[in-house]
TrEMBL record:
A Pfam family recorded for this sequence: UBA_7
Compositional bias per record (Low complexity), positions renumbered to this chain: 242-264
One record GO biological process: protein ubiquitination
UniProt organism field: Rhabdornis inornatus
Protein name: Ubiquitin-associated domain-containing protein 1
Pathway: Protein modification; protein ubiquitination
High-level lineage: Eukaryota, Metazoa, Chordata, Craniata, Vertebrata
Length: 405
């Protein structure tokens, strides 16, 4: 009777398994979780307690709190209430430890796939002949390629001029070509940008200089004008740039030459007129150095003339021009105007190409050659042109073919 009077409270618990079995389990609140687990296993897996590991391989989980119940604690200590739901779950078997043979095999496989270290590379390549590439020689070869291409263009221009001079309409064609060059956008200044700066109160000539120095950017030009407001040389012309009057005079002279005697008055006079037009066209294509690069190189202590020469040789590339000034200065500016040997296999192969022969009779091809001669960066534009592109493609292929042989 005393045991009944002082007995603990009996709880009715709802137990479920992963296989779907469900039942009610009545246990006193002082029952340990391990004892409760044994009773559950007797109910759902008869005869399983013969293996002592069966109990340790299962666990009870409180469904509401998702807490794994500790075997050594009582139901009361785990704060389990009447009618709570418990889940009986079999523990996952621990991963088997790998066999020593498997570990050795895996380590050996990793070592075989590992990249060789520096010592192993040197040992394996000790008997190979050294093939170090001299970067200066590579750069020199690239420079030779540009020089050779210039020579080809110079000689092709001479051939094109002779062929076009035989055309009865040559004077009229080159009057139009001359007019096209007069509209060269490189000499133009963005009128809207110029008006914005002049409306701010900056002088027009100074605003033009600032825009040319800053690639027609109004914001950068304004910053440059404010920064150099007190500079005594702010109104000086840009280094290497012709005064504004020179192009106008050249254009007037070109117009006069173009309006000269027609080919009907005599073949010699027509040829002289064409020669003058060719000279005017060539003069308009004179090299224009990048003003920023000129200023930057002159600040290093170089003379303006040699800076302009360096930029001309290196196609306005400031870093290459600096290397040219500090190096052997090859090729010289004089070499740029020399043509290729007309008896060389390369030039003969170019002249024998039918596409090149047909292209040399087109005035646009001559203009393309002149433009690329003085502005190499425009070569992409002419390569994509439907009239001049095939000619440039053939010249490039012939050069690359003979250069490899």
């Amino acid at each position: 009777q005393e045991e009944k009077i002082f007995a603990g409270k009996v709880l009715r618990l709802h137990v479920c398994t992963m296989e779907g079995a469900e039942w009610l389990e009545e246990v006193p609140e002082d029952t340990t979780v391990e004892k409760l687990k044994e009773r559950c296993l007797k109910h759902c897996v008869p005869g399983s307690l013969e293996d002592p590991k069966t109990v340790t391989h299962h666990k009870l989980i409180h469904a509401t709190s998702e807490k794994v119940l500790t075997d050594t604690k009582t139901v009361l200590e785990e704060n389990i209430q009447d009618r709570d739901v418990l889940l009986l779950v079999k523990k996952r078997a621990p991963a088997l430890l790998p066999k020593m043979a498997d570990v050795v095999a895996e380590e050996k496989r990793k070592q075989e796939q590992k990249a060789p270290d520096k010592d192993a590379i040197l040992k394996a390549t000790a008997n190979l002949p050294a093939r170090s590439v001299d970067r200066s020689v590579t750069h020199h070869n690239m420079r030779d390629f540009q020089t050779e291409l210039r020579k080809i263009l110079v000689s092709l221009i001479e051939v094109a001029q002779k062929l076009l001079a035989l055309n009865p309409d040559a004077v009229e064609l080159f009057k139009k070509a001359n007019a096209m060059l007069d509209e060269d956008e490189e000499d133009r200044v963005d009128e809207i940008a110029l008006r914005q700066l002049t409306e701010m109160g900056f002088p027009e000539s100074r605003a033009v200089k600032a825009l040319r120095l800053n690639h027609m950017s109004v914001t950068q030009a304004m910053e440059w004008l404010i920064e150099h407001a007190d500079d005594p040389a702010v109104d000086a012309p840009l280094p290497g740039q012709a005064p504004a009057e020179a192009p106008a005079e050249g254009a007037a002279s070109s117009a006069e030459a173009a309006a000269g005697p027609s080919s009907e008055e005599g073949g010699e006079e027509a040829k002289d007129e064409l020669t003058e037009i060719f000279k005017k066209i060539r003069r308009k294509r004179e090299f224009r150095p990048d003003p920023r690069a000129v200023i930057a190189l002159m600040e290093m202590g170089f003379d303006e003339k040699e800076v302009v020469d360096a930029l001309r040789v290196n196609n306005n590339q400031q870093n290459a021009a600096c290397e040219w000034l500090l190096g052997d200065r090859k090729p010289s500016p004089e070499e740029l105007d020399k043509g290729i040997d007309t008896n060389s296999p390369l030039f003969q192969a170019i002249l024998e190409n039918p596409v090149v022969q047909l292209g040399l009779t087109n005035p646009k091809t001559l203009l393309a050659f002149e433009d690329m001669l003085e502005n190499p960066l425009n070569s992409t534009q002419w390569m994509n042109d439907p009239e001049t592109g095939p000619v440039m493609l053939q010249i490039s292929r012939i050069f690359q073919t003979l250069n490899r042989t």
